[in-house]
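Inputs:
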Amino acid sequence: METHEEFYNTHPPPLNYENDITKVENFVRCHKNEKIVLITSGGTTVPIEQNTVRFVDNFSAGTRGSASAEYFLDAGYAVIFIYRSKSLEPFVRHFVNDSLLDKLEIKNNKSIQVKEDKVEKLLPLLKKYKDAKASNKFISIPFTTLIDYMWLLRGSCMLLDSKYCLIYLAAAVSDFYIPPSEMAEHKLQSKDGPPVMTLHLVPKVMKAVTHNWSRQAYIVSFKLETDSMLLETKSKDALHKYKHQLVIGNLLHSRKYNVKLISPNDIEDILVTDTNKKNGIEIEKIIVNKIKTKHDEFINNI
Amino acid sequence: METHEEFYNTHPPPLNYENDITKVENFVRCHKNEKIVLITSGGTTVPIEQNTVRFVDNFSAGTRGSASAEYFLDAGYAVIFIYRSKSLEPFVRHFVNDSLLDKLEIKNNKSIQVKEDKVEKLLPLLKKYKDAKASNKFISIPFTTLIDYMWLLRGSCMLLDSKYCLIYLAAAVSDFYIPPSEMAEHKLQSKDGPPVMTLHLVPKVMKAVTHNWSRQAYIVSFKLETDSMLLETKSKDALHKYKHQLVIGNLLHSRKYNVKLISPNDIEDILVTDTNKKNGIEIEKIIVNKIKTKHDEFINNI
């Protein structure tokens, strides 16, 4: 397998990269010695053709990452939200669920309002969004392809090498990719028969995150599996291999109400009860509160 | 290659299918002897694993389909909009472009309004949306996978077998798929090395649309290519093979301002000028107006 150095040497940064990383740099400078969380969210795409028509995608609506961002803001963090373009964004997600336009009404033929019965829920959320923006507590940067993601991850992590920083890797990143040098230049033609796609393994960057880029940060990775037998073993293996602080393990079918927080010496099961759900309590609220406590202990070296 | 009959025999309909098709059926009954357009929009996904984590996706934001739906409503059509879940929807697209929440403001700490400087553009659009819903001129049905799409297409086309019906196939449909019987049950593990994906050709259903399901309708298909040399030849080939009325040919890099309307005896080049653009005229407005004329001639057998 290629090393991550080789990957970065052979894949130039995306066009927006300098701009995006400057934005992160300024944000981090603004919040020196405050708690900052970097959240990655949504899936990556791997183009199959150079003039991209088709790509291999990872399934992820971005629910985990976008919900967590809201609760990290509640918990006092400055939030850097690196997300797949068009996946869910914090606060925005409450407005776009169901039918956005059916939430709006026309008043006196000259203004557009959110319907009264929706205001109670949406007003506090909009206020939080405006406050976070006004106090410069929140920035968001979109990516699309695996290569975009890889560059943003490295650039941001290198700026977050302090114990006050939390790195929360919720994005669903492809394990495989097709190097641009091996892509078809034009759209594959069906008359040529089904294409044979030779996928390459994406170099593992977790070791670079924990050992090179963000050695002092508190690092949380995610494991999503469909086979419950594999989940704990693979999470423990990851902790052993990368020496980071926490793996959040979840199964595809139960991920909305059950996760495991797996640290080197402990496994904690988190379950959202039906009562929680009725009261509108999302599992991400519980996850973030637990992690905040762990991060505080880490900062104070308890 | 599999026939379309074999495809439908081996792939059962999606869970929502009966519900969705009943909705279309009622809509069509409501608009008997009026002009109806079926628009398909957005890309299809092809799951790689049975517990879907990864899939092959076709690139399509759904701009062409969603914009066209608005102009077909303007042109007096009843619109059935079958679209990829999360892709652009008519009217909604104007609200979600850029930052939705930055278009909203809090008034007197008790209501949420669209900012005054955005109202001029958005109010007429919201009004059109509300009118179309209130007069039952518009329904939308989402799909995700190729199999969902295939079922919705067949079911809807079979209900639209009349000269008053227009079928406007703007969705970007995968040419390839992996039969569920050949999918991995669980998430492919990277330790097993890069997966070999054997893709199957999706049976061509255009011939079934034109010769079996909607023999009397006016049918418009799309060709998206990256190689301009191939575009006209492939469009002409399609018309010859399927005997339908119109192919809209476009190239990936120029599709926002240039398309070709290719009919058996004629090729018409449509170009949005810079002046058009400055006046906010979208290419879909021009396309839809041209097609409306052609469809009227078709109905009146001119």
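The longest helix of chain A spans residues 116-134. Flag for discussion at group meeting.
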